[in-house]
Design a protein that fits this description.
single chain; alpha+beta; Alpha-Beta Plaits; four-stranded antiparallel sheet; 8 strands
């Protein structure tokens, strides 16, 4: 894959050359996999030895946009798995994921995906990309408030930021 990227991973973006690169790693240990959610099933990888690579497919017209990006971080999965087992952990993740999906759906914001983190993970939400409605920040804050106000056994933290990003597909299709 790295050899192929050296051949096809060169592109021009806004008149500037871009070289796509990748790194590869191997890890072993205990991994836990959960399929949770309400409006769609989200595959969550967690556990003390877990790593996850997330890619999002889809075509956007490449442009600079003002977006709002937020995360909902959940902690405590390692201890919960050790104390109560994977089935109970899945039940708690199901609640968090379902609350986040319902809030995103109600507010019309994009549930971008999930990512692994030490002793838990995070849900990533966006407004302004792929679509915008003019009140993106307000809708994001409403969704985050709804998620945080839910009853969760796993501790939650949220963060939100607004700024300009370059959004679009880069590199060969």
């Amino acid at each position: 894959m790295r050899r192929e990227l050296r051949t096809i991973g060169r592109a021009t973006v806004s008149g500037d050359p871009v070289s796509l690169r990748m790194s590869v790693g191997v890890h072993s240990g205990l991994f836990n996999f959960f399929l949770v959610g309400d409006s769609h099933r989200e595959f969550v990888v967690t556990g003390p030895a877990a790593l996850r690579e997330s890619t999002v497919a889809g075509a956007l017209e490449a442009e600079h946009r003002r977006v709002t990006v937020a995360f909902v971080h959940f902690d405590g999965t390692d201890a919960l798995i050790a104390q109560a087992g994977p089935e109970e952990t899945a039940r708690h993740l199901e609640v968090v994921m379902g609350d986040a999906q319902r809030a995103a759906d109600r507010q019309g914001i994009a549930f971008l995906g999930t990512d692994i983190d030490r002793d838990g993970g995070k849900i990533i939400l966006t407004t302004g990309a792929p679509t915008t409605s003019g009140d993106d920040e307000h809708r994001m804050l409403m969704a985050l408030r709804e998620i945080v106000d839910g009853e969760h056994a796993l501790p939650l933290r949220v963060g939100v930021n607004r700024g300009h990003v370059f959004a679009g597909d880069i590199g060969p299709p």
